[in-house]
Amino acid sequence: MPNTYAALAVHAIFATKRRECALSAGALARLPGYVGGILDARGCVCLAVGGFHDHLHVVVSHPPRLAVADILRQVKGGSSQWLRKNFPEMQGFCWQDGYAAYSVSPSQVERAIRYVESQDEHHRVRNFEEEYLDLLHQGGVECDERYVFGPRGR
User: Fold this and answer.
1) Cβ atoms of residues 134 and 122 within 8 Å
2) C-alpha–C-alpha distance, residues 39 and 87, integer Å
3) What predicted TM-score, i.e. pTM, was given to this entire model?
4) How far is the C-alpha of 95 from the C-alpha of 139, rounded, in Å?
């Protein structure tokens, strides 16, 4: 075939360092635009960004030439620098090292977007740890729950 055709979408979730409630309402309101700019500059399409005070979700469509790990490294690094620069109360802000990332079938992209856009709603009834473990299980990711989050003190 002379052309490459791909429909690649990923739903990624990552937490603040030590899962601290470090993301203010102001930061959460401005993060989608900034993260969207990072992704756009790399040839990706930002489909949704949303989160809560201790984590962020991103749904992104990306070209096959980009690895998910590279995309997320750029999003996490760029956004943490931007948060430290633009929000004086966040001078020491960092994301945790790890993340979860799931491929999203084209038929499920709208569902993933709705999920990300409704973070406030579903965090009224469950916390990040419950949400994260549920998403790992739904995604078929095998893990030992004792080691998923690590200690909060580090």
Assistant:
1) no
2) 21
3) 0.87
4) 22
CA distance 54 to 142: 23
Q: How many domains does the chain have?
A: 1
Look at residues 77, 100, 96 and name the one whose alpha carbon lies nearest to residue 151.
96
Residue 153 lies in a domain: no
Taking alpha carbons only, the member of 81, 103, 105 closest to residue 93 is: 81
Task: Domain of residue 60: give its range.
Answer: 9-143
Nearest alpha carbon to residue 106 among 2, 10, 4: 10
**DSSP string of 30-93, one letter each residue:** HHHHHHHHHHHHTT-EEEEEEEETTEEEEEEE--TTS-HHHHHHHHHHHHHHHHHHH-GGGTT-
**Inter-residue contact 76 to 95 (CB < 8 Å):** yes
**Residue 42 counted as domain residue:** yes
User: How much is the pLDDT for 152?
Assistant: 54
Residue 29 in any domain: the answer is yes
Q: What is the pLDDT of residue 137?
A: 79
Beta bridge partners of residue 103, listed in sequence order: 10
Q: Give the residue ranges of the chain where pLDDT is below 70.
A: 1, 150-154
The SS3 of residue 116 is helix
